[in-house]
């Protein structure tokens, strides 16, 4: 096994150890056969990108830390500011595990039912705790919701770091970047639902506006950087990367709302986004060659 793979495996071991869970528990939460996890830890197989993403989610680290030993990132995905990643607390593994369980349960409930329809008692029931225990970690439902947005930012960052660094072609990397953010499948729809509810919330209450702006700004800069890399590779820049990124992310936002409200399918949305990339980024570059 290459040295880098050895270091990744050691960090995976450390993340499991620091999670306070046994290896079999981590495998169960990952939905992964324990034998496969053991083989990966013993160097008999590599972790797939989606496995690293899930493992980071379960153990409370970032994929970038698993790959590099740092939460700071260099490459195709702009690292989130610390303020928009899940809050880290100086507490033991048991408390950290309970805090993650609360956020994950709340994230699913908010995404499925909506913020106003979810009570703290519902979150407590979903993660097998008392309401008092929830309030021990989070004084208010509003604070729980703010943390679910940070959790969504982390999920997106983890997916991008796990997959994009291995795609050398900048156009294919851009296509994969936007595909990773589609409201497709249960998790993709849940993540987009949290963002949609956040937009509605900050439209009438500016208390969460800074966190929202920081988190969304990271996504916008990631798309802009990906477009710039496409232009640099082709030697042709038909438009400002910032302008194209604003157009593309606005298209994704609007189409995503249509998917969540049943006006489009995620496949139809994907086709529309791919068509935009073809018309405004790929074909325009090819015509100048």
Structure commentary:
The protein starts with a helix and ends with a helix. The longest helix has 26 residues. The model has no long low-confidence stretch (mean pLDDT 87). The protein has 289 residues and is an all-alpha fold. It is built from 14 helices and no strands. α10 packs antiparallel against α12, α12 packs across α13 and α13 packs antiparallel against α14. It folds into 2 domains: 72 residues, lambda repressor-like DNA-binding domains (434 Repressor (Amino-terminal Domain), Orthogonal Bundle); 216 residues, Orthogonal Bundle (Tetracycline Repressor, domain 2).
Radius of gyration: 20 Å
**Low-confidence segments:** none
Cα-to-Cα separation, first versus last residue? 42 Å
Give the CATH level 1 class of the largest domain. Mainly Alpha
Taking the sheet with the most strands, its summary is: none
What oligomeric state best describes the polypeptide chains here?
single chain
Number of domains: 2
User: CATH superfamily assignment of the largest domain?
Assistant: Tetracycline Repressor, domain 2
Net shape: globular
CATH topology of the largest domain: Tetracycline Repressor, domain 2
Class computed from helices, strands and strand pairing = mainly alpha
CATH architecture identity of the largest domain: Orthogonal Bundle
Number of E strands: 0
The proportion of residues in beta strands is under 5%
Proportion of residues in helical segments = over 70%
Write out key terms for the chains shown.
mainly alpha, 14 helices, 2 domains, 434 Repressor (Amino-terminal Domain), Tetracycline Repressor, domain 2
